[in-house]
């Protein structure tokens, strides 16, 4: 997508960033998660040039993060809706938001709250172990190469 | 950092992306979280041009995600170590890795495992509510503007 190959191509972070590693792409996904869907809504929210927005929406549709839905035969308008793949970028954007809230707050603090629709409590993101159930910190996280990668050259 | 202002400047995602919203920057942080610290280590891992790597490391040091440590008076070498602020990008990279594992796997599957150093179990990332303790899905997440932003124009 970015028009070149990257050396550590077996890395999933690298592969993800080939698709979403561009500021506008992330911000379009943010807006879609917040409920925007019309071309004009994205354009006004982002202050983005029309041709750039068109290109990014095309990329996101082509990669299956958004799907373009026509409003009907009588209308030339269409909406861009998140697919499950697109919605699964939610944890990435949640983590970016919390990091920004913490390290680059506005003078009025964090712009948005993250609340549980069920009870109104504060929602946080964490790592935990599926086997023992413990919460895991980065220090307690091992990232070994998978067996298929540890015993043969990367493809 | 990217040399311009963005319209939705009150958004923490947007603010974060002004610092880390660039592919190489994310990949340097990934390598640092995996334990690399020397200039040559980053250069070899990333296949990045020396001048680009120098610029990105300078940015990351300037913003306080990395700190440059000289190896001693007898050496001209130095290492780049993650600060707490830099380490706190871990959840962003974890989420990007899992999204890439799921949607852009290699022919051999996910390159790295995420294991609990304590018991060897699989580590996953999730959202949960601090009040009721429930796991929260994106559908159960409310993102209202904070009071300071709901009642006055964004600055």
Give an overview of the whole structure:
- Two copies of one chain form a homodimer.
- The first copy, chain A, is an alpha+beta fold and 155 residues long.
- Helices cover 41% and strands 15% of the residues of chain A.
- Chain A is built from seven helices and six strands, in the order ααααββααββββα.
- Chain A has helices at 12-20, 23-33, 39-46, 50-62, 84-87, 90-103, 147-150, and strands at 66-70, 78-82, 115-116, 123-129, 135-136, 141-142.
- In chain A, the strands form two sheets. In chain A, strands 1-2 form a two-stranded antiparallel sheet.
- The longest helix of chain A has 14 residues, at 90-103.
- The first copy, chain A, is globular, with a radius of gyration of 19 Å.
- The first copy, chain A, starts with 11 loop residues before the first helix and ends in a 5-residue tail after the last helix.
- Chains A and B meet through helix 1, helix 2, helix 6, strand 3 and strand 4 of A and helix 1, helix 2, helix 6, strand 3 and strand 4 of B.
